[in-house]
Amino acid sequence: MNIGSKDCVLSFEVFPPRKNLPIESIYNTIDRLIDLKPESISVTYGAAGNDTSKRTFELAGQIKNMV
What we know:
Pfam families: MTHFR
Cofactor: FAD
Pathway: One-carbon metabolism; tetrahydrofolate interconversion
Radius of gyration: 13 Å
Number of domains: 1
InterPro entries: FAD-linked_oxidoreductase-like, Mehydrof_redctse-like
Order of helices and strands: EHEH
Number of helices: 2
Structural class: alpha+beta
Protein name: Methylenetetrahydrofolate reductase
Strand content: 5-15%
Distance between the termini: 26 Å
Strand order of the largest sheet: 1-2
């Protein structure tokens, strides 16, 4: 398969920034990922046992509004 062919699909998984970083710190990266026109972008929920659930929902909503 070649990138750009109809058989190739891109998807990305992002992790919410740690609590000590502003959530906006990931928006530039998401903008760049969206430019690649992925099939989907998923947001990890509670990676490594961290309590990031509020940030996960906030980031998922922001991605939805950006596409």
